[in-house]
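Write out the bound-state structure for nickel (II) ion.
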Amino acid sequence: MELTYYGQSCFDVVIKGKKILFDPFITPNPLAKNIDIEKIEADFIFVSHGHGDHIADCVAIAQRTNALVVSSYEVINWLEQQGLKNTHSMNTGGCHLFEFGNVKCVVAHHSSSMPDGTYGGNPLGFVFMTEERNFYYSGDTALTLDMQLIPRLTNLNFSILPIGDNYTMNVEDAIHAAEFVKCHVVIGVHYNTFELIKIDTEKAQEDFRAAGKTLLLPAIGETIAL
Ligand code: NI
Ligand code: MN
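---
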């Protein structure tokens, strides 16, 4: 499976030929100035919660690609008010079979409001269970004991976890999270975009190595095989 990173918590994967984009936040991100959102294709867009750094380019990309947008009930209501029609709402604990495989929404300990202040419902994490790979994208979250439930669902091949601290888990927490979900390969996101979430990336990778795990930090625009 290929994963392309677009900065902050935005990335896409291709499963069964379907392009699945997560948390589109590109045009407001100076670090992602070389990414042209007009060139991003998507069949599905998964949005973990309503904060601007996860949703800024969602409407524009969804309107151009007609991707199916999946998020919480409240985020979807708001996106529909912005004009989106091809949508699918879910909530914590719910699972749904899409064309590419199953997705279960799991607990994220965070908050969720829309850019205009509208209530955004529960923030979500997503567990993807597909014929190609199984993976966990936690969204913005603290370390939670609930993560220990995920290995009961599936054996993960990799996890996408925030590591930037201040608003979410830090590196140390993400190592514990990797232990909780029984997955040794982590793609770190939600770091370095803002002053408050700047981290020492070399030390982060060393800390993961010392814990017997791998922290992958693809460059913005880079595609990695998993
Ligand atoms: Ni957030
Ligand atoms: Mn965020």
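---
Residues 133 and 157 are 6 Å apart (CA to CA).
Residues 2-225 form a domain with the Metallo-beta-lactamase; Chain A fold (CATH 3.60.15.10).
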